[in-house]
Design a protein that fits this description.
The chain is mainly β. The strands form two sheets. Strands 2-3-9-5-6 form a five-stranded antiparallel sheet, with no helix packed on it. Strands 1-4-8-7 form a four-stranded antiparallel sheet, with no helix packed on it. A hairpin with a 6-residue loop joins strand 2 and strand 3. The longest helix is centred in the N-terminal third of the chain and has 9 residues. The radius of gyration is 19 Å and the shape is globular. The termini are far apart. The model has no long low-confidence stretch (mean pLDDT about 90).
Length: about 150
């Protein structure tokens, strides 16, 4: 039986219309929707901090597949020295993406949604001293990668 008290009280929501040409994947709809739902937070910083940050590579980056979205980065549930990255294919197609990180990585594993290991992933060197892995996606597939960091 459904909860007799669900959806009670005041609710609010936002919506947007984003005109585009072509298919939603070609028109930038997924990116615009993500930016609408998770807006960039701007914080004032000292000018020296801003200057130091200019040109710094992000901790994680996805290349080679505009239909793959890096959705979450968090500390692993079972080990504080591991980092979990969750990605998904957003357009309903197949993709081959390269996930790179500038963290000092010892190993990487694919996991299920509960962060239980399912496969080991081969690490490769990437430009700028980064480490990268190659990932294959099926339509709308979610992938979770757990990185073990070097001490």
């Amino acid at each position: 039986e459904p909860d007799a008290h669900c959806d009670m009280g005041h609710h609010s929501f936002r919506y947007a219309v984003f005109p585009h040409t072509g298919a939603f994947g070609d028109g930038g709809v997924v990116r615009e929707a993500y930016q609408f739902n998770v807006p960039l937070v701007q914080l004032p910083v000292d000018a020296t901090v801003a200057a130091d940050a200019a040109g710094v590579m992000p901790f994680f980056a996805v290349a080679g597949a505009p239909n793959v979205v890096l959705d979450a980065v968090k500390r692993a549930e079972d080990n504080g020295s591991q980092v979990v990255v969750r990605l998904y294919e957003a357009f309903g197609g197949h993709a081959r993406a390269r996930l790179s990180t500038r963290l000092r990585v010892a190993s990487a594993q694919l996991t299920n949604i509960l962060e239980e290991p399912t496969a080991t992933v081969k690490l490769a060197a990437a430009p700028g001293g980064a480490t990268a892995i190659e990932l294959e996606f099926r339509p709308f597939e979610i992938k979770t990668v757990k990185f073990s960091l070097k001490a």
